[in-house]
Amino acid sequence: MKHAPFAQDPTPFAAPRYHRVTVLGSGSWGTALASTLARAGVETRLWGRDAALADEINTRRTNSRYLGDAALPAIHATTDLAEALDCAEACLLVIPSTAIRATARATAPHMPPGIPVAICAKGIEESSGLLLSDVAAEELPGHSVGCVSGPTFAHETAMGYPTASTVAVEF
């Protein structure tokens, strides 16, 4: 079988560059991913439930509870979902699998229309047996939902060490 040559760009799909991304979950992995985004020049907002931790991230640029003394770049941490999601162009859900449905449901009224959502947690929903991406898709209709996974360590990722992840999303 002979394939036709590419017209101009051999890449069938070029992902858009995001300028503002929200990370929901200020634990070790959420903070590490937020740090990676911020170091790449993306305005990054990090949502978590703990006001003291958000204050530490904003003022000391550390998350000592989860990442020790790892220095963080400029990340805006908040406990307010509406503030975290204001003008977001993409969202990462980096929370325990047991909280995916409730958190997705809580974010729905604040989620900008149509932005992609990436699940950065492992597991299935125990009560339904659904994949976490299917749970998020149920709670966030109209949003493309994908997954980020890989053999990575949060502390090394936060420190900027080389690592690799897999991103899977329908487009």
Summarize it.
With 171 residues, the chain is α/β, with parallel strands linked by helices.
Report on the architecture of this protein.
The mean pLDDT is 90. The chain has seven helices and seven strands; from the N terminus they run E-H-E-H-H-E-H-E-H-E-H-E-H-E. The relative contact order is 0.16. It has 171 residues and is α/β, with parallel strands linked by helices.
Write out key terms for the chains shown.
7-stranded mixed β-sheet; 171 residues; 30% helix; 7 strands; 7 helices; alpha/beta
Q: What helical percentage do the residues reach?
A: 25-40%
> Mean of the pLDDT scores?
90
Q: How many strands, which pairing sense, and closed or not: the largest β-sheet?
A: 7 strands, mixed
**Unreliable residue runs:** none
Radius of gyration: 17 Å
Helices and strands, in order, run as EHEHHEHEHEHEHE
Number of helices: 7
Instruction: Count the beta strands.
Output: 7
Span from first to last CA?
Answer: 26 Å
Spatially, the strands of the biggest sheet line up as 3-2-1-4-5-6-7
- Summing up helix and strand content along with how strands pair, one would put the structural category as alpha/beta
